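Final report, closing paragraph on structural work. Over the funding period we assembled a curated collection of sequence-structure pairs, and we close with a single example.
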Amino acid sequence: MKIAVIGTARLRRWLSSFLAAVFMLAGQNGATGRDLGVPESARPMTAVELYVIYRDRSWQWPDGAGRMQDQGRIFKAWSGSGADAWWAQGRWILSDSGQLCLQAKWHSQSGAYRGKTCFSHRIDGQAIYQKKEPSGEWYVFRHAKPLEDDEFSKLVPEDLVSARLEALRNSAQQSDPEGTSVAQSLKSVAIGEAQ
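Its predicted structure, as stored:
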């Protein structure tokens, strides 16, 4: 079965919108989690502090999950279902300026796309603030006394990604055993980037 390849620009726009929606929903808390700003006393978290929070954790999203594997700093994720399913593999990167970046190649039945999403973190006592870069809003990621609906509570030690990612990868290979649609899409992405 051959899968139609959508145009590079259209694929990028759709995936950018899709990922923005996933990460926006992943970063939303209830009204109690919202904050209009970060206290002046808050400082950027260090790479070590971020490492302790994210290593070997799965981040549960509304329709998927991402896994930050310690060994090799591998990032794996899946999102969506059926024809709208995506899976990703890449790396998670930390900085002493308080950033966590998820850099990965996202795959679907329509092709593949490289993406990078970063989150900034600030800490004030035990409270942690987070925002999606470059244009997200700061919110309370973890309250000083953690609340059940804190985004932080969606980081769990269980691997919620590997089995689903493997199933999506196998499904894509069965749909396109020669990898022709993904190869054609990657070729069109490469040509588009070269121009």
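Residues 1-15, 17-35, 179-195 have pLDDT under 50 and may be disordered. The first strand starts at residue 43 and ends at 44. We thank the funder for supporting this effort.
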